[in-house]
Records
---
Amino acid sequence: MSMLKRKNSAIFCAAAVAVVAVMLLVVCSETNPTYKDGFVRDYFTLMTRADEGGYIVRVPEAEKYAAGTQVLVTAVPHRGWAFANWFGHENNGTSSTTVNMDSTIALFAYFERLEPLTLPVYYDTAGGTVSRNPMTTNYFEGDIVTLTAAPFTEAGYRFTGWDGPVADAGNATTTVSVTENMMPVIANFRQNNDTASTDTYTLTIFHNSEHGTVARDPEKIGYNPGERVTITATANAGYEFVEWAGDVDGAENPGAARDTILTIPMNSNRTISAVFNPIRYTLSSSTNPPGVAQVQRNPALQAYPLGEEVTVSFVNPNPGYVFIGWSGACEGTGACKITMTEDRAVTANFRDITTANPCHGMTSAQPGSACCTAQPTFNGCIPDDVYYCSYGPTSCYRIHTQDGMDYCRGTGDAVVIQCTGTDRPDDFTCCTGIVVDYSQKYTLTISNSPYGTGATTSPAGVQSGITAGTEVNISAIASIPFEGTGFIFSHWSISPSNSSSTIAAPKNAVTKVTVRDNAVVTANFIPNEIIDVRDNRKYSIVKIGEQIWMAQNLNFIRSSNEAANVNRGFCYENNDANCGTYGRLYDWATAMNLLDTCNTHFCADITHPHQGICPAGWHVPSSDEWTTLTNFVGSPAGTKLKSTSGWNDGSGYITGTDEFGFMALPGGFIASNNMTSRDVGTQGNWWTATQDNNNGAGSRSMFYDMNLVASENREIKTRLFSLRCVRND
């Protein structure tokens, strides 16, 4: 598996660049091309890696290469994979590239997974059998399959030859190369006493009876030379006829290969296949008026098979609009679930509830009018400046217009506060409507909760005689931040609830409070471990920046009676002891507590925070939340987050410092194609709640020999990774 576990050659993100830099840093101390005495070094290191889709061969193979050596590097794919691209070297589009060793080079090979293919083989089961080697339901482009036809000789049958793209049509044992959209292979058996070949011709028709039926007129074993036969294909429900394949030359009706009715003259023995495909239906969704909300479908597909159930919902309606009901494929105001039996359309209808607005029905207004007073940004009001207030518990903005007035209102609030003239109050009063007397002195009380945690605050106790508007520095220190039965800082709170005093950064242990009245500011602490009430497992937790994370991987096993998904999570190598050390490994849909179809489809109705299988009050972190974590800890994030033990030792080993108590462990992963456990001790991989495409989702990875946290945006959802939960705000 690659450092970044790529599956698509088009994906080269910043994390890959960071990995190259790390590899170069690892070796630069011994491969810097210049000695201290100024002489150029004679040898350079070639570092190569391949992702899980293959491996790399170097000719010649050496630990170091003399300057100027030409090294042939070849990326060799495993079965079911194809070479995609090189990273770290000029891409020549081929799996083999020549590297000139004139410096230290880090080279990566990326592979992409091939789509599985089927090998269509037809024969008359009354006349014999056909075996294939290898025998499997899925093949890949380029697979060579050996076919052996075995006639039922005791019943008087013989093998007469193959039809289709085989290597030797006359030999009972032959080979065929699997390709996409390949023609069917047909084994022909005939009874020994069958003399039809001399007087009549045979017509053999193959089709999948689950997809449709084929009738012929007339229905006979043998047909006279020149006799006309009409064959008719009828698709089953949910399928449609696509084409006839095989010996259709000479058909009498124009466009015969795609007509459901085919008329052919019997001037030779013919073998024909009827091809059916599942019908796909489209679902269009919209809003009325257009664009007032986002309509989402789950699953979100371009087309749907017969009987697929689709859930339609909407999010983020524009302010001033209220949902009044569905029309089209759904009706009423309840949940919209559509069963696809034909092309469908659905509309989410909304009503504008801002008719009382003084600007309603107007296209423009004059500065100073009632409309401009109520809505300073309306067309024609000509605001000079728009910016966010820095004060107040609610988000609001102040607008300065050409008539010299300031207007301030809460976001989405219909009430506008007008602040006029030279006597207008400060921004805080304008935004909140709270008048502050800046000549008064107030009392600030600092406390902690729960009492008796052993935590300390600064300043402590009661502070009197504070002038209104004064900023006071405050800080909180937990008793035992990372281990033992201690506490960690959670957040600051202020009382009374209607206090006009404000805390600059309530989630930061060190921050400021602006005093505008008598207030009590409390430092809130929580235990540094939680108990998952679902199975009574205990987890350590840690606060890093403004986030609170589990300091262990989740080890929750889903109940077997949950219908959403049969996958309950797995232990590495099915060993319970590994779950105790590294936590459980989950595919993405299981981690998200979604239907397993979300592993292969884009599930559009996911909102953040998304609990998934995390305990109540916790959720699966998004890619942005992981980025917030790594940005806060700073570079090198991987070294700072990795545990100080548990990672493989050896050449290139980078010791974790665990500076923040995150305790990242190398739990490895389980491959989705063969459920093989891999790379415990060398890498840890964690899911995010962020999707990329139908079968891709975000992940984060750390490695024993690298100091970064690698970011992957298109990880295959069916792989089994670890999960860290983060606490809700």
---
Amino acid sequence: MGRFIKNKGTGTRPYGVVIPTTDEELRLTETHTGMMRYSESLESMEFFNGTDWVTIVTPGDVQLAIDTFEGDGVETIFTMSETPTSINQIFVFVGGVHQSPALGVNQSYVISIDTLTFLTPPPPLALISIIHNTGKVM
């Protein structure tokens, strides 16, 4: 049976949920996937992903790196300034159109270390933008 939070109050009074607050040394020993807490030492929210506590970064706090290239209709291999640890850490655009990293018929590129390889060459003079979420907090 699931548990839920229910607020029977109505009107203009403010309501909120108190999130558990702990220190790094006092992390919970019994963890469950999806648990959330506020870390006093990191001064940020965290969630447990089933293996580790992961910091939830707020919008505007993550440093982005942007690589730009120009297509020539022939070249398919481009060297990035950052090395993503996952294909989910980059957004790729050609001529302002998002390119899909999905496997299958819609896949438009693959990555290997710091190299992005398009499956078909971008058209001549097309602006290629690769936006990296570096994960570095500013």
---
Amino acid sequence: MVIYSWGTLFNRMERSKIKRFENPELLDYIKHNLPCVACTKFPDETDICAHHVRTRGSGGHDIPENLMPLCKSCHVKIHAIGTNAMAKQHESVKKWLILANWEWDKYTNKWRYYGNEEAE
């Protein structure tokens, strides 16, 4: 059994994701031009990641409405606590979700995309 540190594991995940990304130009734009939605740090201050609100494994696509720019620490945090908890802690995350055509579904207790069907 191989044991990885969090940094090593995260770097391995990032390398494999770049190969699987449907739109590498969009990923490059997000990583170099947009601030972290949660903590508002800019790319010149930190590394920015593109977080899939709806995972690709759950049918999410690489479209702007499904890719939330987050710094590495906020990206790790959103995976640890979930999108809903992150939206409760950071008003800016909630606003981003609403502006990107996501709405809170009180029946399922999940964020639901109501824009282009391609994101779902």
---
Amino acid sequence: MKKNFLLTILLIIVFMFTFLGCGGPGNQSSEDTLKIAIVNKGYGTKWLTQIVDSYKQKTGKNVVIDKTTSLVEWVTTSLLSGPRSNDVDLYFSISETSYYGLLNRGSTLVQGYDYILEDLSDIYDYVPEGYDDQTKFKDLLNSYNYEAATFKNGKQYTVPWAMGIEGIVYNKALFNQYGLTIPRTTDEFFEVMDDIKMLNNGNYVQAANGNNIYPFVYSGRESYLQIAYTVWWAQYEGLENFENFLKGQNSQGIYTADIFLDQRGMLEAYKVVHDIIYIGTDSSTSNGYVNENANGYTFTQAQVKFLEGEAFMMCTGDWLEREMESNFDVGELQIEFMPIPVISSIIDSENMPDDSINDDNTLREVIDYINGKKQQLPEGVTNEALEYVTAATKMYCTEGNHHVAFIPSYSNQIDEAKEFLKYFISKEGQSLAMQYSYGNMCPLNIDVTSFDYYDNLSTFQRSKFEIARDAIYVGRKYNTEMTYAGGLKIARGEFKMESSFGVDASSNSYKTPLEFLLEEHNHYRGQWSTMMEFAGVHN
């Protein structure tokens, strides 16, 4: 891996020096052909093919999907190769962080251009066809993704092309078969998992293939548990405090690595994740919620096991059906997103307005009231506490801001690329996206039931839209200087919770939640001043 990483860096440096002195009128793309590149991951590419075909038929323009790649790194490398080598006019990409790091380099990347990406603010001010005659794209887009797309100069250089809803997905058929209820809090979540372990006369029930059905399944190779962890952390801290972390600041606005210690919600969320995947030193000390070998699963293996009925729940995203279509028929299984349980320790959060909710039973009753299952709020609970918990129940993760389209500033086809984007965000374009990606589309605040294809969506995809209706999104909104320039992250890819919590507790790799948090703190504390310097911020 290190050799591959160093080789990639070397190639980027070579490419940069190749074109730094080359301004010129634009790239080498054909004057009459719009060339598109797409990263082929969870949502596939069929949806874009259909949109391209429809656009060509509608306009008579020449548009081709010139490059399809599964390598996210290729996008940055090709973009940096510059106008003499790169003829891609429009990218539909996936970024693990954001392209703000490149934008932050300004005019240093391509001579003659202020930024390496074209300003798309006019797309955000455009009124897309098919919705109404006055609402601009920026007003149709949910606020989280609009904010995530806005650079520090107030302009937008990328357009999100996916909803990217993430959460806990459950096997509804199994829940119904065994009379299980959707947990409202994390304490109740563990109670349900304890019940699942005992369904077969004190033991696990078996799937059709004879394997045990565990309460939960995950992959130790890819950190999808980060989905639930992030939400539980944000629930505990509240949205404002959570977003202060991404700025690298404490509640007083001071840049400090001690945010890892100040935000108790991080530790509380680590504890929940730890207890889900803890396997102890043997079966007698394991919590028993996951297969003891789960830490070695790839994410695809984990998804297959979930879809084959070997687990009641898992963390994943709205791309699940499309990604697994070669293994299972879409809509074949009764799976849905569940509301992410509210972290039970929220009642102890210093950000909770008061202590009028002082136990988990009361918290559950409050959640029932919020969901319309109880007519009266528990006696003594204040409106302020109700408001805090209500926000917590609406929090979900999204990857929408990491699935973005953009135009190289040196493209010869900027106007045509923008016209294609206008068609893409129109209701006609989004209808095609919904139909051919099994429900994916731009993260828009619109009535999706008005789309002709909505009735054909699976219950899984409909549950996604139920979430999106009034969701408060949290996640890797890396649009702050300390994230895109300083390197601050919600979770480091090379330092996974799974690799520390889900291993043999007697091994050197195992860490308690507190040990894990302190290691994160020490990592950042040792380089905090350098991070602030790179970010260009100071106290």
